[in-house]
Each structure stands twice: as C-alpha cells, then as structure tokens.
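User: New here, any thoughts?
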Amino acid sequence: MRHLTLLLLIFTAPIVGFAQDSIPKPAKSSLEDIAKYETSNKDFTVKGSGRLFIDYGYLSENTTFQENYGALEDSNLLRLKSAEFNVSGTLFQNTEFKFKAEFAGNKVSVREGFVGFKNLPGVGTLRVGYIYEPLRFSSLSSSKYSSFMERSKNHGFSPKNNLGAVVFNDFLNDRLSAQAGVFHNGSNSKDNLQDNDGYAITSRVVGLPYVGEQKLLHLGAGFSYRKPDSKEYVIPSAIGSYLSDKKLKAEVLSDVNNINLLNLEAVYIHKAVAFQTEYIIANVHTDLDNFQFWNYYAEVSWFLTGESKNYSGGYKGFSRLKPNRNFGSDKNGIGAWEIAGRYSKTDLTDGMVQGGIQSEFLLGLNWYLNPYTRLMIEYIHTDLEDNNKMDVIQARLQVDL
C-alpha cells in the first residue's frame, strides 16, 4: 500500500506543480466537472474518478449439486466487490495517460495503466502499457455500464487486460473501426493475470451498417493468436455467481502449442431497447490432440422510463447513462428504470477434457437514481449437466464517478 501511494505521488506531483497556477476553478455543472481540471488553453487536463460496488447474495443449490460440487460454505454473503481509483488526462492534446487501481478484499491490483499518442498520421492512436485487448465487446465496455452485475462467461477465455501495445483508428466517418495489438500473454492458469506467459496477437474490426437517432447496429469480429510459454491453458468459469466461489470442473490443459480465439459480436439499439450477443470459440492445439470450447450469450434490456443506452465507439462500448429525470429532482423525478434478461451457454467439454457444460438464465432490475448511483437486483438460475442446479438472488449498490 505504501508503494502504491508513493507511485501516485511521484506520478502526479510534477503534473500538478506544472499546472497549478493556470488551472481555473472547476465549473460545477456536473460531478465530472468537479473532478476535472484543465488549463485555459487545454494543453493539460487531468481527471480523477472512482467507483464502489457493495454486493449481497443469497445462494441455494440442489442435492445433486452438493454431491458433485460440494455444499456452499455460506449461502448469505455480503462483499465489497470493488473499490477503484482512476486518474487520467492529456498533455498538449495529443498525449494521453491513465492509471487505474482496484482495492478488493485484501488485495490492491493495477487494472489499467498506459500512455497513448493520438492523431498519428496513418495510424490513429497508439497506446503502450497495461491495456484492454481488442477482442470482445463485453470486456471492452466498463462493468459500471453493464446491465448485469457480472460480465458474460466469454470473459474467462482470455485476460481482459494485458501488457503490450495497441493501435486503433476509425474510418468512413466513424462507421468502421479497427484495432490491433501485440501483448505479453497473461497467464490464464494462474491467479496473477499479469504474469508473462508467452505472447498474444489480437485484432478486431467493427462496423456500423446502420446509425440513426437513438438507433444503431454494431457488428464486429475479433481474433487472437496466443502462444503460452508455460504450455498450459484453462478457462475459469464461475458457476452461477462469482459469490459462489465454485468453478466448472475445467482441468488445466498441458502440452499446449497455441490457442486461437474467434469472437463474433452484435449490438442493436432501438431507442429504449438494446440487444447484445456474442459467440466465442477457442481452438486449443496440443502436442497430442486439438480441443474446442465455446460460449454464447444473448441479452436484452428495456428502459421503462424511456432512456437509451449510450454507445461510445468500437473500442469503448457503452458509456454513462443519464436519467431523463433524476430521483428527487425538482421535476419529481423517479430516476431511470431498466429491466434486462440474459441467456448463456458454455461448453468446456471436448473428448478427454471434461470441463463441464453450463446453461444460465438471468433476470435483472436496475434503478438509476442519477448518473452516478445505481441499485441492482437480479435472479440467476444455473443448470449444469446431470441435474446440477443453483439459484442466486443478488443485489448491488453502486456509486461511481
């Protein structure tokens, strides 16, 4: 913790000292303005942000599940899921930086940290550091803006972030986006995803064939070639909820030569309704055999109060939702209310590898009191093969900036 504090002081002190004389008082038109400072000529900007997730869950499983996977240690759980601090900014309008640290349990971990160079001729933007791999829409969109408390199960097929470099650019009036990067392959078989385990080459293309007022169709495809030095690979997939601390019975594959990941994605927004689906497939090549694992999910959400999801771009995903009338406002606002459903299926069984097959149904209700505060409640029914079942009711209090 002392090392992290020292790092932040070293990183920010020169910047603050450079700009303190010319930084005006922030306008107080929004919470973002209070946490953001910039020079009058906008050559320097810096913004602080963070989030706090407090989760509660009640879990139950049938007798078959207890016999095969073991009984849950605790069916009533209250956890601080995530407390996060971010600092980001720009230098002379063409250099960007970001640092994100997460405090969860007794651990402090770096979630993102990079320096970027924008508007490079023929390239677009180059980022170097610990950055998002451009593979899946669900992993690129911040969990702060997801309709559900947890990302879809395709999240476990490879790390979301890795050390490396990525270039990305938009074309055809932002209707086409392309990203490509080279990364140290974070170990998928160890707890520390920042461990260097070979390399990965990942790329993605996104198109917007239809764009209208509060309407949009997004189609994309991502591919990743991964070469682990450890020659090991595993897909960790939580059963039901992360609160259960249960995983599919996936064994670590050894003698792995390479892994090829292909992800297909589609997002459609029509005013208050949004639809999202992805299909990911992993082809794992070993010395003795080849194996194939996959996941797909489809989710739909509907804002009962008329809001529409905010789409920020091919490499960003969704952004902050602003209710038409904040709860408690002068207009007797009730905030924004959203209902959402998701179905997913994961197959980690192929030949001699018996990782398990999981089907999952989620139904959620979200209340956005204002752009920065949200209450979430959802029901999850998980059905594993051979009549292993789990039911979860979980809730989250979320405050973020």
About this structure: Residues 1-29 have pLDDT under 50 and may be disordered.
